[in-house]
Every structure is written in structure tokens, then in C-alpha cells.
Specification:
This protein has 9 helices and 7 strands; from the N terminus they run αααβαβαββαβαβααβ. It is of the alpha/beta class and about 280 residues long. The protein folds into 2 domains: about 220 residues, Vaccinia Virus protein VP39 (Rossmann fold); about 50 residues. Strands 3-2-1-4-5-7-6 form a 7-stranded mixed β-sheet, with helices on both faces. Strand 1, helix 4 and strand 2 form a beta-alpha-beta unit. The radius of gyration is 18 Å and the shape is globular.
């Protein structure tokens, strides 16, 4: 994100350099990439929520899902998961970064996931009319300024009855175009969505909201985030040598964090939380 896009809080962390390093390390190693995916699934609460929701969708609709859109594929961990959960479906993984697409193609070929197709594309412009019965977008919308264009394109890509699963941060106040905002994540173009803003934007695109719940709720989700992401990444941005402290920290405290994440999954009625999990349907 350009400096003009937002004025960041002085405590903001830029995750992009760390992501680039990790991406290069696991790029062309099947073993390291699988271990990386495993680590993401274990350490990140959002993945716990997404996997739980996908498990419910598998139980309810697996036989009816022929096409799936991974909107903002990134490292490809969700495309990999979706291909395993829905082996009979065609997975279309779209991302704006060419290196991510190339690495994803290489990995899919190596592990024999022939039902995954990686495509370079800008989600504000990309659509594949009536292709998908399910679309998934995790930690993507907070990076895209013209989010409503993405919602409209996903709507067009889904078939009637198709579902759109979104995981994204929440916010205390609505984003106003051109207004300054402060984020603890350096590459975000918005802090997140208020409930009103999120519902309004998704319904303007034509969707009906089936489920909307908070994630990273107080106290459990917030504590897990501090233990496994906020504090370790903050330390690593100071010096990579601090990894000798960060690794033991995460190993020792992981049981506490895992228990917190389990409680966060169970806390389905919280009115507060740092994230959203939405399931919307194309009527």
C-alpha cells in the first residue's frame, strides 16, 4: 500500500517483508510448503474458523459443489484444503501476484491436485460467469480499496444458490473514502468493517447474508492473537536473531493459545471481536 493510501499508527507492523521471506523459503519445496500450510492452520485462529465452516458446508452441500473460487489465493493454503475437501470440484485460484500463481501451479502439479487451476487476475476486474457454487475469500478484502467491485464479481461468478465465505477484520467505525485511518497492519487499506458496513456492501452486490459472526473475540481470541502473532511478529521486525526467543515462546505458550482459540470457536454470540466470518448466498 502506498504511503498516500493511509496514515499508519506508529505501532503498525508491516507483514509483507516477512511474508516475502516465508514465500521464498517454501516456494519450490513440497515438504516445506506442506509444513508451512500445517503451521498456518495450527497458529492462525482465522484458519480454525474457516476450516470449521468449510466442514459444515462439506456435510451439507458437498455433492452439489462443482466449482469453487478461491478469491485471493495467496500462498495457496486454502486452494490446497479445498481440493482435498471437494475432490470432485474444480478449484479456480485467483491472485494478483504472479509469483504466487507460479508457485501455486508448481505445487499443485507436484502433489497431483489436478482439480486446481491457478489464474493471474485482479479481483476488482475478474469474473467467470456462473462458474462456482462456492467462493472463499480469507484476509483479502481489507487489502482491496474497491471492495464492492469484488463483491459484484464474485456474485457474477457464483451460480444461483452459491455461497460466499469471507473472513476479514472488523472495525469500530466505518471506512470513509479519503479519510485517514490507523491500522496495526501496515498493508491494509481499511482497518476492517462495521456490521452495518459489511452487511450493506454485501447486500448491494445482490447477496443474502446467511451467517455473520465475530471472531477474535475478547478475551480468548485476542489473547491467542497476542501470543501467536502480535508479540512474535513485533519482535521479529526488530531483529531476525530474536527468533531464538520467539520459537521457545510459541512452543511453551501454544497450549494456552490453542485453548483460547477453541473457546473463541465456541463463542458464537459475542457482540465484539477483531474479525468477521460471513457466509452469504446468491439467491
Amino acid at each position: 500500500m502506498s504511503p498516500e493510501a493511509a496514515n499508519l499508527h506508529e505501532e503498525a507492523i508491516d507483514y509483507d517483508p516477512l511474508k516475502s521471506v516465508l514465500g521464498r523459503i517454501v516456494a519450490r519445496s513440497v515438504t516445506l510448503r506442506k509444513l508451512f500450510y500445517l503451521a498456518l492452520g495450527v497458529l492462525f485462529l482465522r484458519q480454525w474458523h474457516v476450516r470449521a465452516e468449510l466442514a459444515r458446508i462439506v456435510r451439507a452441500r458437498r455433492a452439489h459443489i462443482r466449482g469453487i473460487l478461491d478469491a485471493g489465493a495467496g500462498y495457496g493454503q486454502y486452494s490446497y484444503l479445498l481440493a482435498k475437501l471437494f475432490p470432485e470440484a474444480k478449484i479456480l485460484a485467483v491472485d494478483v501476484k504472479e509469483e504466487q500463481i507460479e508457485d501455486g501451479r508448481w505445487f499443485s502439479e507436484k502433489v497431483g491436485q489436478n482439480n486446481v487451476e491457478y489464474t493471474l487476475g485482479d479481483l476488482t476486474q475478474f469474473r467467470s460467469e456462473n462458474f462456482a457454487d462456492l467462493a472463499v475469500s480469507v484476509d483479502v478484502m481489507e487489502h482491496i480499496e474497491d471492495d464492492e467491485a469484488v463483491f459484484r464479481n464474485v456474485f457474477a461468478t457464483l451460480r444461483t444458490g452459491g455461497q460466499f465465505l469471507i473472513a476479514t477484520p472488523s472495525a469500530e467505525k466505518e471506512t470513509v473514502p479519503g479519510e485517514e485511518f490507523h491500522s496495526v497492519i501496515g498493508e491494509h487499506v481499511r482497518t476492517g468493517y462495521t456490521e452495518h458496513e459489511f452487511r450493506a456492501k454485501i447486500t448491494r452486490a445482490g447477496f443474502v447474508v446467511e451467517k455473520l459472526r465475530r471472531t477474535y473475540t475478547p478475551v480468548w481470541g485476542t489473547l491467542a492473537w497476542y501470543i501467536l502473532q502480535r508479540i512474535p511478529v513485533r519482535l521479529l521486525t526488530i531483529s531476525k536473531l530474536i527468533v531464538v526467543i520467539v520459537v521457545p515462546w510459541m512452543i511453551v505458550l501454544y497450549p494456552v493459545a490453542a485453548l483460547c482459540m477453541a473457546f473463541d470457536l465456541l463463542n458464537s454470540t459475542s457482540a465484539r471481536g477483531g474479525g468477521w466470518l460471513m457466509v452469504a448466498r446468491k439467491p
